[in-house]
Amino acid sequence: MLYLIGQILVIVLVGTFAGLGLGWWSRGLMADLRPPATKSEEETDPFGARSRLEQCHRDNAALRRDLRETADQLEQMQKATELTREGDMVGRLQAAEVRVQALLDDLQVRDDTIAVLEKELDALRARP
Length: 128
Hints:
Elements: H1 2-33, H2 41-44, H3 46-84, H4 86-126
């Protein structure tokens, strides 16, 4: 019985070492297939990275400036087209007044609801 346990232990150890050996050997083969990862000088130079970051910030600022200028031009063009259509402006103004009134009514309803809920909350807090 002890002899069988010894044989099983030896077979398990031989299998383990064979697996480790095959893994080590295949790792070496895979390392040969992979191209060497060489970093360029730009990637490792911290001053280069800083200059690239500063360039990105400058580009970002320039893009924001262009966006702002374009938005201003668009707004001016919209105002110019709106001024040419005064009859349409009266209709828009009336529609805007209706929307404002609806929003004010909705706001009043919400304020009333909040006041009711606060009263209920105070009543619940006052209850022992």
